[in-house]
Write a structure and sequence with these properties.
By secondary structure, the chain is mostly helical. Helix content is 74%, strand content 0%.
């Protein structure tokens, strides 16, 4: 069952339960998934569906970061929407898993102690391995902490 079908059935359940906010969030996600499928002109793969969910989450997080502190209504709405979208997002790697993948890439590239000059080469090999499974910002921070 595709993520579109799952989101659609959950949205119907939210409508029947009278959960307006959850229904709106799922409606936005469903629209984004359908639009991506229409653009592609065929069914989405699991990775593409996950990328759409992560993109929606990122947009809401950006809205949350840019919201003034006194606008509690926007903050609460964004927080709720992120919680709902997390149910459909792929499981993300933790710091330990990312660190072990970075160490594997360093070993493959035969780099003992990474420096700033090596960063581009490392990221080029690293990012395809963690794409959709880890936040790029976190990967960058972990790599930076390992550099000299």
């Amino acid at each position: 069952m595709s993520k579109i079908d799952v989101v659609r059935s959950d949205m119907v359940a939210a409508m029947k339960a009278g959960d307006k906010e959850r229904k709106e969030t799922l409606s936005l996600l469903l629209s984004a998934l359908k639009n991506k499928a229409i653009d592609k002109r065929e069914d989405l793969t699991q990775e593409e569906e996950d990328a759409v969910v992560l993109k929606e989450m990122k947009q809401i997080k950006e809205t949350l970061e840019l919201s003034p502190a006194d606008r509690t209504d926007i903050i609460e709405q964004c927080t709720f929407r992120i919680q709902v979208l997390e149910e459909y997002a792929p499981k993300m790697m933790d710091e330990g898993q990312i660190r072990s993948i970075i160490e594997g890439v360093l070993k493959d590239l035969e780099i003992d102690v990474p420096t700033g000059k090596d960063k581009g080469r490392i990221m080029k090999d690293l990012m395809p391995k963690v794409k959709g499974q880890a936040d790029g910002k976190l990967v960058n921070e972990i790599l930076a902490s390992m550099m000299q």
